[in-house]
Amino acid sequence: MPRLSQQLREWFQARFGTGTLDWLTHKQVPRHHHTVWYYLGGMTLFLFIVQVVTGILLLLYYRPSPGEAFESVQFIMTKVQFGWLVRGIHAWSANLLIFTAMLHMFSTFLLKAYRKPRELTWMTGCVLFFLFLGFGFSGYLLPWNTLAFFATKVGTQMMAAVPVIGNWLLTFFRGGEDVTGATLTRFFGFHVAIFPALTTAVVGAHLFLVQFFGMSVPPSIERTYSNKPVPSYSFLPSFMLRDLIGWYLALGVLAALAALFPWELGVKADPFAPTPAGIRPEWYFLFLFQTLKLIPGRVLWIEGEQFGVLVFGLAATLWVLIPFLDRNPTGRVGKLITGIGAFAIVYILAMSLWAWRS
Amino acid sequence: MFLRCLSTLVLLLLGALGAAAKDAKPVVNHCLECHAAFDGKLGDPARQFPDDIHATRGLTCADCHGGNPSQEDAEKAMDRKQGFRGVPKRSEIPQLCARCHSDGAFMRAYNPSLRTDQLTQYGTSVHGKRLRAGDTRVAVCSDCHSPHSIRPASSPLSTVHAPQIPMTCGRCHADPMRMKPYGIPTNQLDDYRGSVHYQTLTGGDLSAPTCATCHGNHGAAPPGVASIERVCGTCHVFQEQLFDQSPHKAPWQAAKIAACLTCHGNHRVEHTGDALLGTGGESLCLRCHAKDDAGGKTAQRIYADLTGLDSNLGDAAAVLDRAERAGMEVGEARLTLSNGREKLIKARVDVHTMIPARVEQNTEEGRKLALQAQQAGQQALAEYAYRRKGLALSLIAIAFVVGTLWLLIRSIERRPPAGEEVTRP
Amino acid sequence: MDISAPEAGRVATPGRRRLLGFLVGSGVVASLVSIIYPILKFVLPPRRAEMDAETVAAQANELAPGTAKIFRFGNQPAILIRLADGSYRALSAVCTHLNCTVQYRARERDIWCACHNGVYNLQGGNVSGPPPRPLREYAVHVRGKEIVVSRGSRT
User: Fold this and answer.
1) Angle at which helices A83-110 and C14-43 cross, to 10°
2) Which of A84, A350, B266, B390 has its CA 20 to 30 A from that of B296?
3) At what angle do helices C14-43 and A38-59 cross, to 10 degrees?
4) Biggest alpha carbon distance in chain B?
């Protein structure tokens, strides 16, 4: 074994020089009591890879038309060998992915990892998060079951509230006036072509930036070690092997979830059926859903729904631009921003819980 | 061009109006005008009649009551010499209606599909016979059809609309005072309301049997013992055919025991169940048979067959439910199971032969299907267990990798200078 | 297998490292097998490689005009009738009374349920006997040499 690895290394170095490997083995990862948060990005990446693999597998049997979509998913789950597992993992992994991405985003926010020079890393990360939400929203419709159909109807309806271009957006995403087979075709296109292409590019940029700048050390840790160097360990093998452990654990959790809690398929969508009671979006949209329910019919001079969409749009924009607003993270503005962010997290949690319980 | 079109249109319209005015008879019906002013008995007909089918087809009061509606003066309008009939005698009513309704040529102009044999039919009914014998308390046309609110049977407002028929008959037949002279029971309406037929009728199926379906309408009479089987058999064809093959057929006929209703009742035909067979508390067989005579044994055997299959199907369904709750797909097995249930349904019809071998043909096939479905369900459950085993195996592999990785990390990091010389050439 | 030198703390020997490396490697291989095996199984299509939305009910020359056959449609039996004029019609074969399977009667030109003598016409309408509702109709397409039945309505 060592002989072979030695040979391989020499073969590689003869062509690419010693630079790359040296860089990887010399790369150090700061080691302190916040190090655990460094693993969340890798975990999200791993789950994304799981999504790509299971997604490609599902494409072998899935058929994106209203007459066949539901039946093809049913076929995958019942007739194709291990189809239940592949679809179960795809569905569960999607949810875990959003969850770890959220944790990753909020931890980098609270640890102020977006500070100079990592503004672009933060912004590409935000774009990735929005792309994942897009994946979730478009993928939810693909099995063409009643719940997804009506949740999509309600979800796309919100787009109409966007000022000026609302109606255009609605028609664009629905592929017509209403949610129909045309919407399914469109969402399928977004889900398997447009979003993956964009995500691959942005993930590449995000990873490059992370490697280029190295891991950010939180201000509190910087202060503790004021002038001394922060302790660290090697990226390869120490950090990588720990990452691997995390990925294996995630794999185990996914397998267990898929085997013990099969993802439901529900009932085939019937566009002419009345909207069933208890329609709700996926859990990561619940806070939006609940907030829009709470906003009164008219705020100031604008419609309630429009107001909500505007506020959330503004909040999302500010969220992406945080690195530029928070110039001095340890100053008063920095603390204020942390406070607002913490409030936002609590708000999202509370609203989600409320919507989930009701 | 436009003006010319317009003027042509106006001319056409005017012409049409003129023609309509020329054709229309002056509608003067002074009967209605005067009678509408009365309260109660004298006024009600005037208020009811305009919605009557006869009024909507252009008939007037005078067509039945005689007289001259165009006369404003009451005396002249209702002049007996001018043919005014007044309230027709009950005994004359059937003949009165039959003037038109038995005239095929006349009725064809109004409703060619309407039968014209009502009077003949009525003559064969108990009502008609008694009327001929001078009993005017029996039902005549107007008692069932109402005198002045007659509507076609298809109208929900009609007294002879299927769901209304039980009440229409019951108005007299459920009235003990009225039935007293005839000495017949008055519990038919109550009994009928407890029947499956009534349930089906009120459930919206207008083809469900009402009084008239079994007794006839114009020829209403109780079906005799001999014809009961034929009456029920108009709908329950199989049951009739199968009963004809049963050992009950000949002796019952000889002893003048009625088919069908001896077990099922007449007006209160209730849902059946396997418990009506056998030798249990609800057993109908034990009314005549003893537990240990040949009939009792046959009953016991058929009962055991049916309930056996029923419980087999139930067991299989329970296994399939369990598999489905575990997230397994058992659609194929459900199909088998429903085929098995079909066998039970057929076997229950075969009961009317009272021949155990006949019943067993179907129960045996059903039992096989139930077993097949149950096995498929158990296979699905086994598959579920297999998935868990597969999961356990892969979790073991994962745990093993995680554990050894952890040990590897520790062993690497315990080396004094943190693992550098290995990677250095 | 592993002798730790007390004075240097528990320092791993190269032998222990090699053993651990081997164990990790074989663990990874085992877990990769447990990932790749389901994938290989998944990729091979199952024997009945059509899903329930559509079913090939018959071949083009299989039914003579005025005959019919029962076929499996999803989890339910359905009936494909070739009418006298040569056209096809597909209906659910599940009697609306008590879910027995109905059959075509060539002489009467109707659909009949043997359980309680329920009769439907060839449009699926309930004509006589206990059936409370008509039979559901499915869409039929002639695709090449195959008669394909799907769930969509005909209209």
Assistant:
1) 130
2) B266
3) 30
4) 139
Residue A313 touches chain B, beta carbons under 8 Å: no
Among B320, B388, B398, the strongest candidate for a mutation testing the A interface, having the largest count of A CBs within 10 A, is B398
Which residues in chain B have Cβ-Cβ distances shorter than 8 Å to A18?
A: 425
pLDDT over 50 (residue B20): no
| Residue A260 forms contact with B (CB below 8 Å) | yes
B142: nearest Cα among B168, B114, B110, B109:
B168
Q: Which residue carries 């059809």 as its tokens?
A: B145
Q: Which domains does chain A have, with CATH numbers?
A: 32-271 (1.20.810.10)
List chains adjacent to chain C, taking adjacency as at least 3 C-beta pairs closer than 8 Å.
Answer: A, B
Interface test with C, best of B352, B394, B413 (most C CBs within 10 A): B394
Q: Tell me the per-residue pLDDT of A175-225, one tens digit each, with 9 for 90 and over.
A: 988 898 899 999 999 999 999 999 999 999 999 999 889 888 888 888 888
- 3-state percent breakdown (helix, strand, coil) of chain C, nearest 5: 20, 35, 45
Instruction: Show Cβ contacts of residue A8 under 8 Å, excluding neighbours closer than 6 positions.
Output: none
Rounded Cα distance, B405 and B400, in Å = 8
Take residue C3 and report the two structure tokens written for it: 């002798």
Mean pLDDT of A150-174: 89
AA identity, residue B10: V
Cβ contact, residue pair A80, C45, below 8 Å = yes
ipTM confidence? 0.80
Q: Which helix (H) or strand (E) holds B303?
A: helix B294-325
Cβ contact (<8 Å) for A75 and C39?
Answer: no
Q: With bands split at pLDDT 50, 70 and 90, how would you rate the model's confidence at A281?
A: confident
Helix axes A69-78, A83-110, angle to 10 degrees: 100
Q: Which domains does chain B have, with CATH numbers?
A: 223-270 (no CATH), 294-400 (1.20.140)
pLDDT for the residue B418:
45
